[in-house]
Amino acid sequence: MNDGAAVRFRSTRAGPEALSVSLEEAVRAGLAPDGGLYLPERVPRLPDDWSEAPSFVASALGTLGPWWGDGADEVAPLLHDALDLQVPLRPIGEDRYLLELFHGPTAAFKDVGARVMARLLRRATERRGERATVLVATSGDTGSAVAEGFAGVPNVRVALLYPRGRVSEVQERQLTVRRSGVRAFAVEGDFDACQRLVKGAFRDPRLGPLGLTSANSINVGRLLPQAAPYVWAVVQARRDHGMAGPLRVVVPSGNLGNLVAGLLAHEAGLPVARFLAAHNANRTFPEALAGRAARDAVRPTVATESNAMDVGAPSNAERLWARWGDGVRDRLDAATVADDATLARMRRERERHGICVCPHTAVGLEALDRWRAEGAEGPAVVLATAHPAKFPDAVVRATGEAPPSSPRLDALLDRPTSAEALAADPDALAEALLEDVG
């Protein structure tokens, strides 16, 4: 039930006596002043009729609206505009389902969060009479979703930092297509180097005039909307496939934002039996979950076929441990899948079920089979996080065939691109960003 009170947020590093902020303030700030990530003080329950939603956008409004309390009606048009998307649940045999999250403008699940956050930030800047600079580190898909969502938004500029040579050719084209108010920087380093630059920029007093905020999943405004597809998956499973009990959910994972969103949906009352965080060779979080490494362990990033998950220091692990502590182990398992198994899974799905999946989705499908071999029973949903056409080289290596085309991606071929080289150095980033002041 909606009790009329909007949810407020505190830093992961603050005690219960610390001041809380509104969702608008958390979105505007990105990071908390102490460098922590914002978490909700409470999680509002799903509405009583959540399972009767007729469409994804209606389901999303019911899922997300209670976070604004009595202000839900005011933000409803923004949410409706952002989330009028198709998110189908596709059966693929053996009690397995794919939740296809790649039907948005940039053919990746991150369109959901980026489109919502763009509208929320525009609302915040207009209400406050401010300007903002959105600073984003991306391992592939976040940057293009943010660029597309924020392009041309008044009083908002975007700076995308991506690791040069570590994203697919299609992803790079998406990132670097010229858009109003957007600059793309090819960083000499891996994703973690990009992420360190972003976090360091928030602590740099020189950049105060820019009004920095982030659109990575470290920003709760990007993360929170990603709870909505989980609810819609269960709605479809019940309505279209006759399932009554809780589902298992497999989440291809890198920076762990999507997983946190799923756990928040579960805490809101969504019936999920258990989650599986499916990682590639970047195994920092799986090892911490298993107790083989410290919670704050950091490992060098490993380049893989599923590059959007190539994260050696996942930021949202801080949220997981801060919110659920050791109890997180009661809610989820984690697995790692190497590249050879990823490609083999892509080939197997094409041969046995006639479907083409991206490498990230293949990591999830392979992890699911291993989970079941260890005794996990019941129907399971794997989040299909990106269109396979974003990774044509990997698809060809795995299957010997080109992926199905995507009209949205094909439309990029004739658009001009622009990228600026950037050293993985805080001073170099500051100098580049301050060029826009004034």
Please tell me how large the radius of gyration is.
20 Å
Strand content: 15-25%
The percentage helix is 25-40%
CATH topology of one domain: Rossmann fold
Head-to-tail CA distance between termini = 47 Å
The largest β sheet comes out as: 6 strands, mixed
User: What characteristic shape results from the CA principal axes?
Assistant: globular
Spatial order of strands in the largest sheet: 4-5-13-10-11-12
Question: Which secondary-structure class do the elements indicate?
Answer: alpha/beta
Q: What is the average per-residue confidence, as pLDDT, rounded to a whole number?
A: 93
What's the number of extended β-strand segments?
14
Uncertain runs are none
CATH class of one domain: Alpha Beta
The total count of helices amounts to: 17
CATH architecture of one domain: 3-Layer(aba) Sandwich
Walkthrough of the structure:
With 438 residues, this protein is an alpha/beta fold. It has a domain at 87-105 and 223-405: Rossmann fold (3-Layer(aba) Sandwich). Helices cover 39% and strands 16% of the residues. The strands form 3 sheets. The chain has a 6-stranded mixed beta sheet. Helix 2 (56-64) packs across helix 9 and helix 5 packs parallel to helix 6. The protein starts with 7 loop residues before the first strand and ends with a helix. The model has no long low-confidence stretch (mean pLDDT 93).
How would you concisely characterize the structure shown here?
The protein is α/β, with parallel strands linked by helices and 438 residues long. Helix content is 39%, strand content 16%.
